[in-house]
Design goal:
By secondary structure, the chain is α/β, with parallel strands linked by helices. It has one domain. Strands 1-2-4-3 form a 4-stranded mixed β-sheet. A hairpin with a 4-residue loop joins β3 and β4. The longest helix has 25 residues.
C-alpha cells in the first residue's frame, strides 16, 4: 500500500507547503509513459513529509519508508526561480549566440537579486540547521501559478527535481539495497536508475526530454551548490557531487551541443557567481557546451582537493 503522511502540512508556516502537496503526483507525472510500471513496481511504500530546517531526503529500503523535508523543496524552488531570471538575462545578452561570453551583475537586476537572496537564505538556514521564517518581501510559491510566469517555471522545474530525488530513493527499494550505510556504488546505481526512469522513454531531441533533463540538472546542481557553500563535496557515502552532476546526464545525452549542457553551464555559473568562487568560473573558449561543463567539473575538483 502507498501511504502519504502529510500531517505536518496543516501546521507548516512555510509557503512551500503549496508545492509539497504535488509531490506524490509528480512521481508519476514526471514520466507518465511509465505509470503502469510505477504502479506495479512501487505498490508499497510510505512517503513522509517533515517540517525542519534540515536537508532530509532518505529512505529505509527495508521498511520502504521515505522521508523528505520542506527545506529540500524550499531550496529547489528558490534555485529554479533564480535560474529562470539568470537564464532570461543570459539569453537577452547573448541574443542566441551560445558561445558569446558575458558577465551578469546579479546585484543590478532586482528580480534576480531577490531570487538569489532567497536562495542564499534557503541554503544558509539549511547549513546552520536554523529555523527562520520565509523572508518578507521575497518571491513565494503560489498554489496555481499562471503558465509562462517565473513562478510557473519554478514550480515545474522544482517538481521534476523533487521527483528525481524521490525516484532515487525509490530505486534503492527497487534495487533491493538493504540495511547499512550508503556507499558510492549503491548511490551511483540509484542515480542511474532514477535518471533512466525519467529520460529513457522520451527522445533526446524533444522539448519534453529537455524539460525533464533540466529538472534533473537542477536537482544535482543544488548538491554542487551545497558543496560550494560548505566545502564538502562528498565521495564518502556518495559519489562526488560534481561527478554525479556530469555522469548522470552524460550517459543519457549523446550530443555534445545538446541544450542541457548550456543549461548546466548557466546554473553552475549562477552558483559560483553567488559564492566566493566567482573568479574561478572557466572562461573558455570551448569546442562544445559539454566541454564547458567538463571544465567546470575540473575547477570543482581542484576546489575540492584544497578542502
Amino acid at each position: 500500500m502507498r501511504t502519504i503522511d502529510a500531517t505536518v502540512l496543516s501546521s507548516m508556516k512555510s509557503p512551500i507547503r503549496e508545492l509539497m502537496r504535488y509531490a506524490p503526483n509528480a512521481l508519476i507525472n514526471v514520466a507518465p509513459e511509465c505509470e503502469a510500471a510505477f504502479l506495479r513496481e512501487y505498490d508499497e511504500f510510505t512517503l513522509e513529509y517533515l517540517d525542519t530546517p534540515k536537508w532530509v531526503c532518505e529512505v529505509d529500503a527495508v521498511t520502504k519508508h521515505i522521508k523528505i523535508s520542506n527545506k529540500v523543496f524550499e531550496i529547489f524552488w528558490a534555485n529554479a526561480l533564480a535560474f529562470y531570471y539568470y537564464w532570461t538575462v543570459l539569453q537577452d545578452e547573448t541574443q542566441g549566440n551560445a558561445g558569446k561570453s558575458v558577465t551578469i551583475d546579479i546585484q543590478s537586476i532586482p528580480e534576480l537579486k531577490d531570487a538569489c537572496q532567497l536562495l542564499q537564505w534557503a541554503f544558509s538556514t539549511c547549513i546552520l540547521k536554523k529555523e527562520s521564517s520565509w523572508p518578507v518581501g521575497m518571491p513565494t510559491p503560489i498554489d496555481t501559478p499562471e503558465k509562462g510566469t517565473p513562478e510557473y517555471f519554478a514550480q515545474e522545474v522544482s517538481m521534476i527535481a523533487i521527483a528525481f530525488f524521490l525516484h532515487h530513493e525509490l530505486s534503492h527499494i527497487r534495487l533491493h539495497h538493504g540495511k547499512g550505510p550508503s556507499d558510492v556504488d549503491t548511490e551511483k546505481d540509484a542515480d542511474f536508475a532514477a535518471t533512466d526512469w525519467i529520460l529513457n522513454c522520451v527522445d533526446e531531441n524533444s522539448p519534453e526530454f529537455l524539460k525533464r533533463a533540466a529538472g534533473i540538472a537542477t536537482a544535482v546542481t543544488v548538491l554542487v551548490a551545497g558543496s560550494l557553500y560548505t566545502g564538502y563535496f562528498d565521495g564518502d557515502t556518495h559519489p562526488r557531487t560534481y561527478d554525479r552532476l556530469f555522469n548522470i546526464l552524460d550517459r543519457n545525452i549523446t550530443r555534445p551541443d545538446h541544450p542541457i549542457w548550456y543549461i548546466l553551464t548557466a546554473n553552475l555559473t549562477l552558483f559560483m557567481d553567488n559564492t566566493k568562487y566567482r573568479g574561478l568560473v572557466p572562461k573558455g573558449p570551448f569546442d562544445t557546451a559539454r566541454d564547458c561543463v567538463n571544465a567546470h567539473v575540473e575547477v570543482l575538483n581542484r576546489i575540492a582537493s584544497t578542502q
